[in-house]
Amino acid sequence: MFFVGTHERAAVYFGPMSDEHLRSLKRAADLGDAVAKMKLDLELGRVRDEQEIALDVLRSGVSCFVTGGAGTGKTHTIRRFLTDADQITTAITASTGVAALELGGVTLHRLAGLKLGRNDPVAYERDASWRRWRGYELEEIRALVIDEISMLDAATLDLVDGILRFVHGKDAPFGGIQVVFCGDFGQLPPVQKKGEPPKKFAFESK
Q1: 9: left (phi over 0), alpha (psi -120 to 50) or beta
Q2: Phi/psi zone of residue 79: left (φ > 0), alpha (ψ -120 to 50 degrees), beta?
Q3: SS3 203
Q4: What does the radius of gyration of the chain's CA atoms come to, in whole angstroms?
Q5: What is the pLDDT of residue 160?
Q6: Among 67, 62, 47, 53, residue whose Cα is nearest residue 6
Q7: What is the CB neighbour count within 10 angstroms for residue 168?
Q8: What 3-state class would DSSP assign to 34?
Q9: Which ranges in 9-153 belong to alpha helices (H)?
Q10: pLDDT at position 181, please?
Q11: Residue 42: pLDDT above 50?
């Protein structure tokens, strides 16, 4: 496991990591040159179990990207985090319905009340009926979990970012709340319909 991060955001990777993996992780977490890398040598017993360390990062309140190959414990770690999380202020979502059900949450589209063809946050701000479409009271959210982040396209992530900035009244990423991304960009790409041009990955968002 590797951990990279700053005081505001972090990324946790389960499994062995090459230099190319590390470079990709930095880009996806948008940590740039401020990254501090820590190699966790579990075989020598110098640190605790890697999931416990990941949980410490998640519970600290920083925005975090949890990633790694299939079967490395990403979703299990998120479930453990959610066990202790405030059920009122923590929104549990995923990019697909199946993944959302696995965590006991909703799709990100349901959370934010996204409507087909409406891609401007301002349009939602002006829609008096928007509230009843939403799966959560967005004003109460203090932490947002998004599982299977690789299947979420950049445009949708930008839209949710804009909506949360408006709802929370803060010009900060996602309105200043904690955001936890979970997934592997080396697996499934963003969902798209047949004939559509390729969609950008979430890490290519604004």
Answers
A1: beta
A2: alpha
A3: helix
A4: 17
A5: 92
A6: 62
A7: 17
A8: helix
A9: 19-29, 50-59, 74-84, 97-103, 108-112, 121-125
A10: 92
A11: no
Instruction: State how far the Cα of 138 lies from the Cα of 100, in Å rounded to an integer.
Output: 18
Instruction: Please report the DSSP string for 139-173 in residue order.
Output: GG-SEEEEESGGGSBHHHHHHHHHHHHHHHT-SSG
123 three-class SS: helix
Q: Is 52 helix (H, G, I), strand (E, B) or coil?
A: helix
Check if the beta carbon of residue 192 is closer than 8 Å to that of residue 198.
Answer: yes
Give DSSP secondary structure letters for 125-146: HT-TTGGGG-SS-GGG-SEEEE
Nearest to 52, CA basis, from 15, 85, 81 = 81
pLDDT in tens, 143-183: 999 999 999 999 999 989 998 998 888 999 999 999 999 98
Longest dimension (CA), the chain: 59
Tokens of 124: 């939602």
For 10, 38, 178, the CA distances from 47, given in Å and listed in that order, are 18, 11, 26
Tell if the pTM clears 0.85, that is, is over it: no
CA distances from 151 to 138, 154, 186 (A): 23, 10, 11
Give me the pLDDT at residue 135, please. 54
Compute the distance between CA of residue 178 and CA of residue 144 in angstroms, rounded to an integer.
Answer: 6
What is d(CA 34, CA 118) in angstroms, rounded to the nearest whole number?
A: 36
Decide: 111 and 93 in contact? Cβ < 8 Å.
yes
DSSP reduced 3-state for 7? coil
Q: Can you say whether the dihedral through the CA atoms of 116, 97, 191, 206 is positive or negative?
A: positive
